[in-house]
């Protein structure tokens, strides 16, 4: 299991040229889409090959060798994970990092763990996904008007990347934000992802941008920066304690869906 080719209709985990099921969008030229596809493929190649953080490289590969007993048949991915979803998305959803036996096992961001189960059920209910589950790279998942990514691409011990690791992985996220041709809105899942968004937007704007994290809080950012929205991360730590409920997460997603379809989110 695992380690196979990207699902049909995807380009390195990117759904390209989706149908009319997504919410209404302004026109974008075929040439722009093609250019974005090429740039994203190049970015994905560089991400997957990255071995910059020695601590994280050692950790991700150790997990891939040791495995969890229930996944002993799996050929763990054990490499950095790329983004996944609709290339023409207006909405970019950012998490922290792959989970040890989730994304680090399956090779796809937000798949194969409890956070992914919660997230995808809600994305499906809000109309951003074609199915309520995200299990592995060949499960047929497609996203509509949404693209998923992580602030740090390798699984960190204890889910805690160092300051240097967060800093050194940030350029991939900055580049990804810049490539997505229709991006208007970023949903940050958790405080660390929110901080990464602020840093990435500051780099892009050439000046420091500030905003305060809060669940369901929207921030209109200066210039041509995307709107930034915060949410608690859908980790068991939050969902099992009731800090994040399905209702409170869906409230954010449904508002995003409505605002995007009305063209009011972002520029
Ligand atoms: S965390 Fe990012 S910068 Fe560090 S090794 Fe992984 S992909 Fe490279």
Q: Which regions have little confidence, pLDDT < 50, spanning 5+ residues?
A: 1-24
Shape: globular
Q: How many beta-strand segments?
A: 8
Strand content: 5-15%
**CATH structural class:** Alpha Beta
Distance between the amino and carboxyl termini: 43 Å
Shape-level CATH architecture: 3-Layer(aba) Sandwich
> What would the CATH topology be?
Uracil-DNA Glycosylase, subunit E
Note the run of SSEs as H and E: EEHHEEHHEHEHEEHH
Structural class: alpha/beta
Report the CATH superfamily. Answer: Uracil-DNA glycosylase-like domain
Report on this model:
The chain has an eight-stranded mixed beta sheet with strand order 1-2-3-5-4-6-8-7. The protein has 267 residues and is an alpha/beta fold. The chain has a single domain, classed as Uracil-DNA Glycosylase, subunit E, CATH 3.40.470.10. The relative contact order is 0.15. Mean pLDDT is 90; it is low at 1-24. The chain has helices at 30-48, 54-66, 103-106, 114-125, 163-179, 191-205, 236-239, 246-261; strands spanning 10-11, 14-15, 84-86, 91-95, 146-150, 185-189, 218-219, 227-231. It is globular and about 50 Å long. The structure holds iron/sulfur cluster.
């Amino acid at each position: 299991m695992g380690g196979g080719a990207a699902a049909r209709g995807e380009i390195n985990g990117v759904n390209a040229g989706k149908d009319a099921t997504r919410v209404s969008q302004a026109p974008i030229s075929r040439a722009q889409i093609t250019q974005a596809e090429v740039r994203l493929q190049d970015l994905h190649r560089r991400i997957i090959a990255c071995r910059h953080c020695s601590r994280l490289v050692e950790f991700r590969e150790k997990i891939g060798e040791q495995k969890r007993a229930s996944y002993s048949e799996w050929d763990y991915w054990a490499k950095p994970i790329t983004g996944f979803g609709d290339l023409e998305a207006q909405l970019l959803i950012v998490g922290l990092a792959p989970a040890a036996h989730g994304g680090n096992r399956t090779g796809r961001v937000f798949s194969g763990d409890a956070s992914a189960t919660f997230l995808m059920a809600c994305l499906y209910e809000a109309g951003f996904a074609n199915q309520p589950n995200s299990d592995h790279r060949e499960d047929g998942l497609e996203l509509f008007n949404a693209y998923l990514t992580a602030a740090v691409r390798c699984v960190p011990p204890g889910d805690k990347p160092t300051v240097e690791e967060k800093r050194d992985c940030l350029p991939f996220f900055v580049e990804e934000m810049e490539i997505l041709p229709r991006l208007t809105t970023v949903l940050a899942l958790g405080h660390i992802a929110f901080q990464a968004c602020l840093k990435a937007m500051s780099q892009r704007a050439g000046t420091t941008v500030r905003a305060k994290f809060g669940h369901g809080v929207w921030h209109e950012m200066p210039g041509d920066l995307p709107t930034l929205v915060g949410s608690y991360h859908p980790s068991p730590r939050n969902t099992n304690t009731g800090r994040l409920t399905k209702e409170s997460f869906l409230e954010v997603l449904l508002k995003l869906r409505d605002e995007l379809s009305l063209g009011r989110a972002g520029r």
